[in-house]
Amino acid sequence: xxxxxxxIPRAEDLVDKSFRAGAKxxxxxxxxxxxVAAKVLTGEIRRVEMITxxxxxxxxxxxxxxxxxxxxxxxxxSLLDLRIKKDRYKKSIATLQWCADRVHHLKNKxxxxxxxxxEPDQSKVFLARAASFVKRVDKDLAYMIEVxxxxxxxxxxxxxxxxxxxxxxxxxxxxxxxxxxxSKVKVAPYPFTTVNILIGYRKVEHMRYQIIDSPGILDRPxxxxxxxxxxxxxxxxxxxxxxxxxxxxTQPVDSQENLLAEIKGDLGVPVHAYTNDKGLKGEDCPxxxxxxxxxxxxxxxFNECFGL
Length: 308
Description:
By secondary structure, the chain is of the alpha/beta class. It folds into two domains: about 10-150, Four Helix Bundle (Hemerythrin (Met), subunit A), CATH 1.20.120; about 160-305, Rossmann fold. It is about 55% helix and about 10% strand. The chain contains ten helices and six strands. A six-stranded mixed beta sheet has the order 2-3-1-4-5-6, with helices on both faces. α9 links the parallel β4 (about 240-250) and β5 (about 270-275). The two termini are about 30 Å apart.
């Protein structure tokens, strides 16, 4: 699922935008020349309607376009849970809906008074209270801006056979993915280069395969793993049809064997272990060797992971 999310203003910006538009509408309705009472009253009615329309529109857009937590896939729910509290997410959306409802109710009440009392100053009360309502939800607007950034950073995952590439940081996972798929994956000679889940694709005959370059995982208890490592665990748990575990001979073998055993024990999918040679072909290898910068080698490993 990809997300098309609306612009979310801060409270002060929303008040300023709506009030400026309201003032412009009131002035237009009054027109030029002698400002008779009827024109002034009409102008205030239009002001209230315009302000309400903008405030309601911006706030209700959040509820309409942000996904319901229940509508997310299990992978997306788990990924979101790493970054935010779902109860806070639901509460902020509900609070913005509440604010939109209050301003809408206030508009109806104000319009009735304007039309019955014929007193244009009734709109001043509306302006003060509407601004107060919006400013009360500023923290929720700020929070939803943060959530928007997180959701837009989510990988767009397809329902297609998927190979998840796992291993220690700097083992060569991104290099393999880039070599195999041609994806523009950032590669650098330092740990934790990949801090998000990166995706590439390979087409074999009529089948499209998905290759997920997961962040590096360290051999340590799950409770001690950081958010980056937990993203990799989620990709393995929710997305993998096959796993490629890449060994790095420049790093301790025991910790990698422990990590491989953990992954094999937790997943019900095939796990294939290969060693990235990194120019050390003369060294002993616990698993078959391949070269992560050699296209033919990477294709061979990919085919073996899927039995092609």
